[in-house]
Design a protein that fits this description.
Elements: H1 3-8, E1 14-20, H2 28-39, E2 43-49, H3 55-64, E3 70-72, H4 77-83, E4 86-87, H5 89-94, E5 99-102, E6 108-111, H6 114-126, E7 134-138, H7 142-151, E8 160-164, H8 168-177, E9 184-187, E10 197-202, E11 220-228, H9 237-244, E12 249-251, H10 254-269, H11 276-282
Parallel strand pairs: 1-2, 1-3, 4-6, 7-8, 7-10, 8-9, 10-11, 11-12
Antiparallel strand pairs: 3-5, 5-6
Length: 286
């Protein structure tokens, strides 16, 4: 039974939540409240602090008591992947889960909507599909893995995919994990000197800490789009670098945050909310 069908049999709205630690900073309750109002869905959504040693117990209790889906954030995404009884192909590739629900058989299903949220933001809000483009992904951690898992589902894939990382062996390991699904070129930052890219995605958190990978301006092709998966009130160091060196577009991760939430909302409720108006609501006014 879907959450929407269950709502029809109950006067109480279905409960949803995001769980993590820390969690007080989360924008997810506001985002899902805006989605619910936009789509006229009767739900509640809260942010709940759950410590690592209590994760499995909490999830079991949540679903046993009739709770709807859960969003999962740090530090629980890998534990959610291990806990899920069924995982979607993109979650299996990502080896991380940020969305939990129950299927018709009562099994816990894990999905990863992070990469889909980013790609949807690029396409829907910035008219920047990555099909046929030369893509550079900075970093070989979990954030980059989630993006690659979503790209693996695209019918129109990039012309080339390059993953650059400070430690080359990590990039090579990531490329190996996707062998048979994506052809990935693994390089160190020193290897970027002689190449141009149409889309550059920063999957590291370095710029939030005032650091920047050792990048050269020559890697930015004409009309290059630079996307930082991180989001802060002020432009990140990576986005400032991109603008200073002529990137046609420099986009932060707010749309990805809202986009991944929209994919989760759609999975739970069977209706797709529009993200553009929510981005405008959450974007700090100049």
């Amino acid at each position: 039974m879907s959450d929407v069908e269950a709502d029809k049999q109950s006067s109480a709205p279905t409960r949803y939540a995001v769980i993590g630690s820390p969690i007080s900073h989360s924008k997810s309750p506001l985002i899902h409240a805006l989605f619910a109002a936009q789509t006229q869905q009767a739900i509640t959504y809260e942010a709940i602090e759950v410590l690592e040693n209590d994760f499995e117990r909490f999830v079991g209790s949540w679903f046993a008591s009739g709770g709807g889906g859960l969003n999962v954030t740090v530090p629980h995404k890998e534990r959610a992947f291990a806990l899920a009884e069924v995982t979607t192909p993109r979650a299996t590739l990502a080896r991380a889960v940020n969305t939990l629900s129950l299927d018709s058989a009562g099994r816990i299903v894990g999905d990863n909507t992070d990469g889909a949220g980013l790609l949807n933001d690029l396409i829907d809000n910035y008219d920047t599909p990555i099909g046929g483009k030369r893509l550079l992904l900075l970093g070989a951690g979990g954030a980059s893995r989630g993006v690659l898992a979503a790209i693996a589902d695209l019918p129109n894939k990039p012309a080339s995919i390059t993953v650059a990382n400070r430690t080359l062996s990590r990039a090579q390991g990531l490329a190996s994990d996707f062998e048979g699904r994506l052809e990935i070129i693994a390089v160190s930052y020193d290897d970027l000197q002689q190449h141009e890219y149409d889309v550059v995605i920063n999957g590291t958190s370095a710029s939030l800490g005032g650091e920047l990978p050792p990048l050269v301006p020559s890697l930015l092709a004409p009309d290059c789009c630079c996307y930082d998966m991180m989001y802060s009130a002020e432009p990140t160091l990576f986005l400032r670098w991109a603008k200073e060196h002529g990137a046609a577009k420099a986009i932060d991760g707010l749309g990805m945050l809202i986009g991944q939430a929209a994919v989760a909302f759609s999975l739970w409720r069977g209706v797709e909310p529009k993200t553009a108006e929510v981005i405008l609501t959450l974007r700090p006014k100049a």
